[in-house]
Amino acid sequence: MNDLSALAGRLQVEVLLRDGRIEAVETRLQRPLVQISRLLVGQAPEQALARLPLLFALCAGAQQVAAVRALEQAAGWQPMAEVEGGRTRLSELELLRESLLRLVRDWQLPLPAERLKSLLGLCQRGIALLQPLCAMGAAPLASDGRLADILGELAECWSTLVLPSPDDWLQPRLQRWREVALGGSLPAVFEPADIPPLLERLRAGESEASIAGEPRITGPAAFADGGAPAAMQIAQRVAALLRRAEQAAIGQPVRPPVAEDLLAEEGVGLAQTARGWLLHRVRLSAGRVAVWQFLAPTDWNFHADGLLRRQLLGVQVAEEECEALLRELILSADPCVAFEVRIAHA
């Protein structure tokens, strides 16, 4: 393969429908994480970091931030607080950019085109200024005021936005799902306290996104009332995406936890994305990458026994509405890969 960017995943969701009732749900997430890991193993840390943007089309900045945190921890390097703060800001700007694109494209957020262009442009300028901090052992940026000006303009641009509530602009689209009751309780939310038991499994070579055999959820997918009708849950997730974008725009970054009690030459890095927590784990040997593992929000939110299966199993829905409902639920959990839906009729 000579085009590293061609590495991509795919999500397939198939349900068995009998007399308007969903009797089976199969979620198949195909992600070439093993192949990507092989491209990084054996590389010097700097070489591996240079490859990452070629391997991930989405959340490339967050991938670099999580990766450099893991590599520096494995190498025993303690970054300066200003550097870590700048890395968090980079991932927040990327989160804002990708959230806005999702909200406008997938959910028709009524954001004027010129305002969207301004916000995206400010995000891009800030990301470009912060990019040098993704290097191993990076030094703090020069205090020339450019970043402060961009962040101030971004916060002001956002503060003058006048947007309707998600209920208002989503109501016509979601009206048809107001009476559809979803089944099952939501999986637990992925929390920093889950990292130690997760590390034990990763060290053993297991890469499934679960804790003690149980799936988790992260990002906007976690912000819904599991007992609410489908329309309300979808609206709650979209509203959470918008709230998180606002938090990033006005300068309230979410600092990631730091993994502790690690093995020699082991590092774990986390970063926030528009979809939730991203985790990288690395092991170094003789100054080169010996092990590299990834867990992205999509791995958590689309676990085979996770969110979709638990909510859809047993749901009553008209045959002509089933595929549309599945697509809306999948979009509200925001996979980072292309997806397709299949309906099998019993």
From TrEMBL:
Q: InterPro entries per the record?
A: Ni-dep_hyd_lsu, NiFe-Hase_large, NiFe/NiFeSe_hydrgnase_LSU
Q: By its UniProt entry, which Pfam families does this protein fall under?
A: NiFeSe_Hases (PF00374)
Tell me the superkingdom of the source.
Bacteria
Looking up PANTHER family in the UniProt record yields: HYDROGENASE EXPRESSION_FORMATION PROTEIN HUPK, HYDROGENASE-2 LARGE CHAIN
Official protein name in the record = Nickel-dependent hydrogenase large subunit
Q: Which organism is it from?
A: Azotobacter bryophylli
